[in-house]
């Protein structure tokens, strides 16, 4: 389909607003459904982080204690309460299952792509009004592209399908930033485009002397409170850093702070977020303060926590792969901002500073976590919407048809795109030989090779590389992004999802099967011990406390010396790899095998047969 055909199609849609809204909703439902909800609950919980959240939420749901999170009989102060509340509410509605665990993350991701679509479309529509032109194809296509790029990116898909707090935090922060920009672009009156005012009786216009900010700023404050309840101080630090840098660059910080009615905002944020913090501190005292604020916030920024160290260039690699394959266009998209031309941006209407805002959004988060000592791939998830916006606006410039867009940089970026997806294809062909052996899934590499999934993935990306090269040679720029999107969608549907089922079958299913056996075989007062690996899924699927002992010798000593006095039953259940039993001093005559699955075996050890050397 040519650009002219696109223009005609979207011009027809633009004349029928109801149809435009309906098609937009349908588009978002399709890409969001495939990316975030398709097979959402078909795969078991993934060790080691996801079941920690799932079980803490289950305990909250069962006990009715909505203040203090617990896991395996101990307090869990890693994250604030909002993610647990959301998962517990999902349990109450849909039951305790994997789908309910991941539903808050999927909904948050859906909200982000929807607001991305809305804000991009609105911003380009205001640009058309200012320039007195009609380009419905540009704004609808660019908005659709931004939502699709964001939805069909590896980082978004992974965390939208994982029941942890990262996507909920991203949902709150990204939505808050969108609301800020929409409030900022409408000005003090809540209805203006840029610094102008459009009189519209459809909405009430607050007085400039009002103590209440416009509706978008109000939504911003509510969402910031949600971010603080999701992950603590970082929920306000990151948006504050982004907005502060943006406004300082434009010299509008005092003006916009007055406009936002910051005092009212502080009261809203405090009123929504502080009560839970006060209650949890009141109940747990310094244990909570030291654990959450000290260890999980200050130390994560200043020291290496849990061995999560990485070199300074770590997030360059994370963005390259987590935003693949569109990440190859990010340098050009960032250069397109021309952030060094401050006079140009100062002369622009507020609504036309969206690209600059996305730039500060991206670089602020990237820089903040690059400086932080503890590094994890999920930390830069909140910058993905900004990355998608920058790349989509770059493509939107192709539709502007002003003759001012030089395609020379796009030519070279396109060839980098070809090389990049070709490298992905080659890596996939050799993936079975490249991956190491996982003790929890020793047969996975062989099964992956037999499945042919890696070869299929390589073929998909190789075909993409060929098509991209052909388009570049023919100077067909706009379809390049469509090929990347279709290639990634095909890769996700035909390779990534089946591979996840394979991983689940080899790595997690054995633990679920043995957990079910443990539930059936359990005697009153009988303790369940897991030796070697600490797999929190066992706690969730057995719905009981598990004694995790890392060293085999220590586990053997515990059974011989301590378990007899501690447990009420005359036996204990032990879950471990079979090779661990001799290391514990156990011979086949010393225990009863209850089941074996994958790399694990569940046994019952009679305590009266164990000799106590003392």
UniProtKB/TrEMBL annotation:
<feature type="transmembrane region" description="Helical">
    <location>
        <begin position="82"/>
        <end position="100"/>
    </location>
</feature>
<dbReference type="GO" id="GO:0005886">
    <property type="term" value="C:plasma membrane"/>
</dbReference>
<keyword id="KW-0812">Transmembrane</keyword>
<keyword id="KW-0472">Membrane</keyword>
<dbReference type="InterPro" id="IPR050297">
    <property type="entry name" value="LipidA_mod_glycosyltrf_83"/>
</dbReference>
<keyword id="KW-1003">Cell membrane</keyword>
<protein>
    <submittedName>
        <fullName>Glycosyl transferase</fullName>
    </submittedName>
</protein>
<feature type="transmembrane region" description="Helical">
    <location>
        <begin position="312"/>
        <end position="335"/>
    </location>
</feature>
<dbReference type="GO" id="GO:0016763">
    <property type="term" value="F:pentosyltransferase activity"/>
</dbReference>
<dbReference type="GO" id="GO:0009103">
    <property type="term" value="P:lipopolysaccharide biosynthetic process"/>
</dbReference>
<dbReference type="GO" id="GO:0010041">
    <property type="term" value="P:response to iron(III) ion"/>
</dbReference>
<feature type="transmembrane region" description="Helical">
    <location>
        <begin position="356"/>
        <end position="373"/>
    </location>
</feature>
<feature type="transmembrane region" description="Helical">
    <location>
        <begin position="140"/>
        <end position="160"/>
    </location>
</feature>
<feature type="transmembrane region" description="Helical">
    <location>
        <begin position="107"/>
        <end position="125"/>
    </location>
</feature>
<dbReference type="InterPro" id="IPR038731">
    <property type="entry name" value="RgtA/B/C-like"/>
</dbReference>
<feature type="transmembrane region" description="Helical">
    <location>
        <begin position="262"/>
        <end position="282"/>
    </location>
</feature>
<feature type="transmembrane region" description="Helical">
    <location>
        <begin position="20"/>
        <end position="40"/>
    </location>
</feature>
<dbReference type="Pfam" id="PF13231">
    <property type="entry name" value="PMT_2"/>
</dbReference>
<feature type="domain" description="Glycosyltransferase RgtA/B/C/D-like">
    <location>
        <begin position="78"/>
        <end position="186"/>
    </location>
</feature>
<feature type="transmembrane region" description="Helical">
    <location>
        <begin position="379"/>
        <end position="398"/>
    </location>
</feature>
<keyword id="KW-0808">Transferase</keyword>
<feature type="transmembrane region" description="Helical">
    <location>
        <begin position="218"/>
        <end position="250"/>
    </location>
</feature>
<keyword id="KW-0328">Glycosyltransferase</keyword>
<keyword id="KW-1133">Transmembrane helix</keyword>
<feature type="transmembrane region" description="Helical">
    <location>
        <begin position="167"/>
        <end position="185"/>
    </location>
</feature>
<feature type="transmembrane region" description="Helical">
    <location>
        <begin position="451"/>
        <end position="473"/>
    </location>
</feature>
<feature type="transmembrane region" description="Helical">
    <location>
        <begin position="485"/>
        <end position="503"/>
    </location>
</feature>
<feature type="transmembrane region" description="Helical">
    <location>
        <begin position="410"/>
        <end position="431"/>
    </location>
</feature>
